[in-house]
Amino acid sequence: MEAYFDNSATTKCHEAVREIVCKTMTEDYGNPSAMHRKGVEAEQYIKDAKASIARLMKVNEKEILFTSGGTESNNLALIGGVMANKRKGNHIITTAVEHPAVGQPVEYLESLGFEVTILPVDERGVVLLDALEEALRPDTIMVSTMYVNNEVGSVMPVEKIAKLVHEKSPKALYHVDAIQAFGKYRIYPKKLGIDLLSVSGHKIHGPKGVGFLYINEKVRIEPQILGGGQQGGMRSGTDNVPGIAGLGVAAEEIYRNFDANVEHMYQLKEHMAEGLSQIENVKINGMELREGAPQILSVSFLGIRSEVLLHTLEDRGIYVSAGSACSSHKRKASGTLTAMGLSAEQKESTVRLSFCEENTFEEADYCLEVLREVVPALRRYSRR
């Protein structure tokens, strides 16, 4: 049996996504900037995807900008947003548990002379609202937080954060990295008070290399890629029609049977947690099971290095990750787990199981059966 529990790293494409990607690569392959029929046909796929996503989020179609994925969306939101509004202030706020696709652009902006405040989190990985309130200033121009943490599944109180930001720092933009949240929560940026929101295609059974950035129509950001003027001059370069078409279909599919799918993932998560509780010296990290995201379970198997357990499970056809799997095979101490105050032993022994609606209880039981077998053996080996 094979059990793929690394869906927060990437997901298998839906069949409908594969079909439209292939069709736009082999049949409707025109350049959407071309004026002839082939170009117009290709452009229609972009319009359809934009309409689908806008409808799902209850925003205007012109507020959706397609990108190459979550990393570009975050970079464009942060660097483009800050540079367009630098005359209004010099202060940026983010948290200690952000993905490097937010952390690195913020460090870059700091090197340019912007002042940065990094907010702490509690032992569950949730940002401290008191610290945010204290950090907000009249010259704050950008606040960036994730919606769902990619390592432990903690959920940030984005609506409360947005309210604080707009009340205390009216010049500030609020950016949300929703890459692990889209498809797991119904996200309405206007209702929540979010100005900029990043999403990636391959986390929702869409193609790799495509994503989008929601940009509120009142927000100014500075383009980072210049050239042919595509997407209203906001992101030049020939539009990735197969990727965008696939993303549009994936977005539609991920919100079909939404409530049932989310409940299924929560039940899988609870089933796995119940089974893990019967294994000695196992700790579950993050929020209470139903408070955290439905798809992510962070688990410390004390006394076993996470990469050793990862490869042991891999040998049995079970795929998990050691922390997060988005950093080019780099293995270093998790900033998220450090910020949460976990011990060195816990950090070194933490793996992430991440589910999707297609995972089964049979797969979960197989994983638990293997863990009950290998964990005691690995602990005996590690003590030698």
Supply database-style keywords.
384 residues; alpha/beta; Aspartate Aminotransferase, domain 2; 12 strands
Q: How would you briefly describe this protein structure?
A:
The chain is α/β, with parallel strands linked by helices and 384 residues long.
How would you describe what is shown here?
With 384 residues, the chain is an alpha/beta fold. The protein has two domains: 3-11 and 258-382, Aspartate Aminotransferase, domain 1, CATH 3.90.1150.10; 15-254, Type I PLP-dependent aspartate aminotransferase-like (Major domain) (Aspartate Aminotransferase, domain 2). Helix content is 41%, strand content 14%. It has helices at residues 15-26, 37-57, 70-84, 100-111, 129-135, 158-168, 189-192, 241-254, 258-276, 306-315, 335-339, 344-348, 361-382; strands at 3-4, 64-67, 91-95, 115-119, 140-146, 173-177, 196-200, 211-215, 282-285, 296-301, 318-319, 350-354. The strands form three sheets. Strands 2-8-7-6-5-3-4 form a seven-stranded mixed beta sheet, sandwiched between helices. The model is unreliable at 324-328 (pLDDT under 50).
